[in-house]
Amino acid sequence: MSVAGFLAYAGLATARDQSRTAVAIATERDVLTELFAMRRQLGWAGSNLNQAARILNSGGDVPHLAQVITEVRRAADAVRRAANHVTNQQTDEAL
Protein backbone atom coordinates (compact mmCIF):
# COMPACT_ATOMS: atom_id res chain seq x y z
CA MET A 1 0.00 0.00 0.00
CA SER A 2 1.36 3.43 -0.85
CA VAL A 3 1.82 6.06 1.86
CA ALA A 4 -0.98 8.14 0.38
CA GLY A 5 -3.27 5.11 0.27
CA PHE A 6 -2.44 4.24 3.85
CA LEU A 7 -3.08 7.78 5.06
CA ALA A 8 -6.46 7.86 3.31
CA TYR A 9 -7.37 4.44 4.73
CA ALA A 10 -6.30 5.40 8.25
CA GLY A 11 -8.21 8.66 8.14
CA LEU A 12 -11.41 7.00 6.98
CA ALA A 13 -11.08 4.20 9.53
CA THR A 14 -10.68 6.74 12.31
CA ALA A 15 -13.72 8.69 11.17
CA ARG A 16 -15.90 5.57 11.11
CA ASP A 17 -14.96 4.22 14.56
CA GLN A 18 -17.44 5.79 17.01
CA SER A 19 -16.21 3.76 20.02
CA ARG A 20 -12.87 5.54 20.34
CA THR A 21 -12.26 8.25 22.90
CA ALA A 22 -11.64 11.83 21.88
CA VAL A 23 -8.08 11.59 23.24
CA ALA A 24 -7.28 8.52 21.13
CA ILE A 25 -8.72 10.16 18.03
CA ALA A 26 -6.84 13.42 18.70
CA THR A 27 -3.59 11.55 19.23
CA GLU A 28 -4.05 9.56 16.04
CA ARG A 29 -5.01 12.71 14.16
CA ASP A 30 -1.74 14.31 15.31
CA VAL A 31 0.19 11.26 14.10
CA LEU A 32 -1.57 11.34 10.74
CA THR A 33 -0.91 15.07 10.42
CA GLU A 34 2.79 14.45 11.03
CA LEU A 35 2.82 11.58 8.52
CA PHE A 36 1.29 13.86 5.89
CA ALA A 37 3.93 16.51 6.66
CA MET A 38 6.73 13.95 6.39
CA ARG A 39 5.33 12.68 3.10
CA ARG A 40 5.31 16.22 1.73
CA GLN A 41 8.90 16.79 2.88
CA LEU A 42 10.00 13.52 1.29
CA GLY A 43 8.39 14.71 -1.94
CA TRP A 44 10.48 17.87 -1.77
CA ALA A 45 13.59 15.78 -1.11
CA GLY A 46 12.77 13.65 -4.15
CA SER A 47 12.45 16.77 -6.25
CA ASN A 48 15.84 17.96 -5.03
CA LEU A 49 17.36 14.56 -5.84
CA ASN A 50 15.95 14.84 -9.37
CA GLN A 51 17.68 18.21 -9.70
CA ALA A 52 20.93 16.65 -8.48
CA ALA A 53 20.59 13.87 -11.07
CA ARG A 54 20.09 16.50 -13.78
CA ILE A 55 23.27 18.27 -12.68
CA LEU A 56 25.23 15.01 -12.64
CA ASN A 57 23.91 14.05 -16.09
CA SER A 58 25.12 17.37 -17.47
CA GLY A 59 28.63 16.78 -16.12
CA GLY A 60 28.31 18.84 -12.96
CA ASP A 61 29.25 17.92 -9.41
CA VAL A 62 26.93 17.50 -6.43
CA PRO A 63 28.94 17.60 -3.21
CA HIS A 64 27.82 15.34 -0.37
CA LEU A 65 25.25 13.53 -2.55
CA ALA A 66 25.85 10.14 -0.93
CA GLN A 67 25.22 11.63 2.51
CA VAL A 68 22.03 13.31 1.32
CA ILE A 69 20.75 10.07 -0.21
CA THR A 70 21.51 8.25 3.06
CA GLU A 71 19.54 10.85 5.03
CA VAL A 72 16.58 10.72 2.63
CA ARG A 73 16.51 6.92 2.90
CA ARG A 74 16.64 7.19 6.69
CA ALA A 75 13.70 9.62 6.65
CA ALA A 76 11.71 7.39 4.28
CA ASP A 77 12.35 4.40 6.54
CA ALA A 78 11.14 6.40 9.55
CA VAL A 79 7.93 7.31 7.73
CA ARG A 80 7.46 3.66 6.74
CA ARG A 81 7.98 2.48 10.34
CA ALA A 82 5.54 5.09 11.67
CA ALA A 83 2.93 4.13 9.08
CA ASN A 84 3.37 0.44 9.92
CA HIS A 85 3.05 1.21 13.63
CA VAL A 86 -0.24 3.07 13.12
CA THR A 87 -1.51 0.32 10.81
CA ASN A 88 -0.63 -2.38 13.35
CA GLN A 89 -2.35 -0.43 16.13
CA GLN A 90 -5.53 -0.16 14.07
CA THR A 91 -5.41 -3.88 13.24
CA ASP A 92 -4.94 -4.78 16.92
CA GLU A 93 -7.83 -2.52 17.97
CA ALA A 94 -10.14 -4.08 15.36
CA LEU A 95 -9.65 -7.56 16.88
Short description:
By secondary structure, this protein is mainly α.
Q: Can you describe this structure?
A:
With 95 residues, this protein is mainly α. It is 84% helix and 0% strand. The chain is built from three helices and no strands. The chain has helices at 3-16, 22-57, 65-94. Helix 2 (22-57) packs antiparallel against helix 3. The chain starts with a helix and ends with a helix.
How is the secondary structure organized here?
Layout: H1 3-16, H2 22-57, H3 65-94
Helix pairs in contact: 1-2, 1-3, 2-3
End-to-end Cα distance, whole Å, is: 21 Å
Largest sheet: none
**Dominant shape:** elongated
Number of strands: 0
Fraction of residues in β-strands: under 5%
Number of helices: 3
Structural class: mainly alpha
State the helical fraction: over 70%
The string of secondary-structure elements, in order, is: HHH
| Global Rg | 17 Å
Whole-number mean pLDDT: 78
Unreliable runs, pLDDT <50, ≥5 residues? none
Keywords:
95 residues; mainly alpha; elongated
